[in-house]
Automatic annotation (TrEMBL):
GO biological process terms, semicolon-separated: regulation of DNA-templated transcription
GO molecular function per UniProt: core promoter sequence-specific DNA binding
Cross-referenced InterPro entries: Antitox_HigA, Cro/C1-type_HTH, Lambda_DNA-bd_dom_sf
SUPFAM superfamilies recorded: lambda repressor-like DNA-binding domains
Start and end residues of each HTH cro/C1-type domain: 78-131
Protein name in UniProt: Transcriptional regulator
Amino acid sequence: MSLAFDKNTYGKLLAEYQPQVINSEEEYDRMLADVEQLIGNKNRSPEQTALLQILVRLIEEYENKNHPMGESSPHLILQHLMEAREIKQCDLVGIIGSNSVVSEIVNGKSSISKAQAKVLGDFFHVSPELFI
């Protein structure tokens, strides 16, 4: 069952969060905290999901401009996301494979399959292409 999108609720969320282009590290940190809070909400409403998508795009724009990553390997991107979100290898067991599979992927000894990339993209709320 899909929940209906409520424009009034969405408007209240926009007024509460006031998303805007990020111009400082303080604004960036605040928006990251907002995103983490929304990601952690297991019962996120359609309106909160729409807000989350906007905040993530604003963060990505700021990071691309102010913290360019350059070329990076899929396992380094995975390591970065794990560190940023305080996720341990054991948290990925069962999501992308066994303990040994997770260890090999995180340490760059095995490549990430397309199926694993999709699951990781969903898990981290990023494009699966980062892991390919």
